[in-house]
Structure formats: structure tokens, C-alpha cells
Design a protein that fits this description.
By secondary structure, this protein is an alpha/beta fold. It has three domains: about 170 residues, Molybdenum Cofactor Biosythetic Enzyme, Chain A; about 80 residues, Alpha-Beta Plaits; about 150 residues, CinA-like (Maf protein), CATH 3.90.950.20. The chain contains 16 helices and 17 strands. Helix 12 links the parallel strand 13 and strand 14. The two termini are about 45 Å apart.
Amino acid sequence: MNVEIISIGDELLYGKTINTNASWIGEQLSMIGFEIEKVSTISDKAQAIKSTVQLAVQTHKLVLITGGLGPTNDDITKQVLCELFQTQLEFYEPAYAAIHSFLKSRNGEMNENNKSQAWLPKDAYLIRNDCGTAWGMWFEWNNSTIISMPGVPFEMKYMMQTYIIPKLKDSFVLPPIVHRHILCIGIAEAKLAHVIAEWESQLPNCVHLAYLPSPGIVKLRLTVIGEAIEHAKQIISEQESKILPIIQEFVYGYDDDTLEELIGSLLIKKSATLSTAESCTGGNIASTIVKIPGSSQYFKGGIIAYSNDLKIQQLHISHDLLSNYGAVSKEVVEAMAMNCRRIYNTDFAIATSGIAGPTGGTEEKPVGTVWIAVASATNICSQKFLFGEHRERTILRTTIAALNLLQKNIE
């Protein structure tokens, strides 16, 4: 089933906003058997919307559109789609009541702009928005399905997951499809491909392998399409049992697992606690940990000791240690972890110190040099990394590596 995704918004074309919607929608639809053939990004202008949608419905069975449903004058997607699909807007009382209730729950006031969002296409199936004020619209036109959604990512995602994907499954005959994701850390994509080359060359034709890299992580996706579900699961399980002995040291989880969730489960299982002492990551590790509901059961707190003064004052790192070895060193990061554990009286502590860049590096310690340590009551483990010159990526990769080092030490 072929699909086109259309993203509307001048801010996307100007680069002011990154178009994460299209990639997320593509991933979700491909997971249930749709084939994404085209992604278009267009301006807010009426002619651009009209011509792009007209062409899309001629060549694709399913067209998904995001953007242009807001309450301001430049949000014209509804009007253009009504013209294109020969219908008109009518006032929809249930939408008005829902919008009014939503705004009231957030201490907002209904105004004429918000009220205008309750004017919706007469001949469309309407999709309620539980997270905002812009409702979605589902049109059937010339054997094509066209779905228009708000461009705000969290509103669109909730609408897709709650209403649209279930309706798509009911509306289309999709091929049986089974995916399995093997999540790897500590190995680059090219190196991983080399390590599993022989296994990959022997995969049955019905098994499709994809490499899905992101900073610090490589996902291997095994997919079987068109086979009976249980048979497909068996085929994938057989291939998984063959690859795991080859890459087990790099595997940290499967499918939707995250390091922070796995660590939380391990700490709860052991009735253990955690604290953090962060320099180069600036609190990103602690922030990642507390994203998990219930993290207060095991995470006590952390210190962001970005400067040497705070390392001395709050983490009790000695002047001599900093002077002799420098802040970015095995000796200092291990002391940070051990002292943090004592200060917070936790079973485990993570510490990071590094040069995130783009300046501050030396020949001996270039930009991207990071030391990570994990301390427990019986052990101190540390490791040096070289993450390159991209500041944000270094912070992200340090966070991932630190959580991975902690996971290995908890286990």
C-alpha cells in the first residue's frame, strides 16, 4: 500500500524547525505494512498545498498531511482541502465543546480564533484532538484516503496512535508483518556490519535486515512480510538465536527497550539507589533517568559540578588531584563517582568529565575526550572515550555510554 507524507510549513522549508513528523509517521506506518514512497515538504501557500495534494491523490492510495490547522490566518489547510474535495466547512458543536473544555482545563479563554477551529469539513470523518485544539480530518476521494493532522508533534503522535492507526488497520488489507529490533551499543555501524557479514549472507530471502544507526546506538531490524504471523516469529527467532552469540557483548535490549528503563528495572529489582556527578554532560544523565515514571524509587539526586571550584567544594575533589591530573582524567572522574556515592549514600554513582568542545582541547586531550566512571560499594569502573568534535552529539553519546557502563556494573 503506497503512501505519501506531506508536511506543510514555511518554518520547515527555512530550516527553523526540523521536520521530525515525517520520519516518525513513516516509521509508524512501515511497521504495520505500508510502503512510504514519497515525502514532500511545502509552504503554507494555498497553491502549493492544492497542487501537491492533487498530485498525491493521483499516485498514492494513502496521503497523510501535517500542518496548517492552527487558529491563525496563515493556517489555511482546511479551506484548501474543502475546495479540493468539493465540500464546505460547518460548525461542529462537539468540537467546540471539546476545544472549550481543553482551554478551560489550562486556564485559557476561548476567543474567535479558537472558535474558528470548530468549523470543520462537512463530508470528512473528524478526528478529535485530546492534546490541543486542532482536530484532524479524514477524507475519501477517488479511491484515495487523505488524512490531515496538526503539525504540533505531540498532538499529531497522540492522534495517530489513538485514533488513526487503529482505523487504518481496519480500513486497509495489510500484509502480515513481524519486526524484531536488536539494540546494540559500543560498536559502530560499519564494524557491526563486518562482524555479522557471514550471518547476514546466509539470511533466508524472506528476512529483511536493516541497520538503523543513531548517536551511540545501532538498531538491527529483522523483518518478515507476508508470512503467517506465528511462522514469521519463528523464522526471526531462529535467526536471532544465530546472531546473538556473535554480538551478545554489544546487545543491551530489544524492540522498544531504553537504557534508562532497563536500568530502572535493575535497580528496583536489587532495591538499589543511584546518584550522579556530572561535568561535561551538564545534568543530561540525571534528566534522562528521571524521564522514567517511578524513578524516585531509585534516583536520589545529582551534582552538576561544571567548574573545578564546584568539584572541590561540592564533590570534595582535592586541589592536588586536579592539578596533577586535570579535570578530564581517570583519577578525577573516579574520585567524583566515589565521593558522590558517599555524599548521597547511594549504592551506585555515575560521574562524567570531558571536553565537549568545540574549543578547549589539547594535543593530549582533544575535543571529544570523555572519562566516565561508575562506583559501587565494592567496585570502581572507569573508561575513556573519544566522541569527536560535535558538542551536542558528545553530550548525547556520553549519556548513553554512561548508562551502558552502569547497566553492566549493576548486572
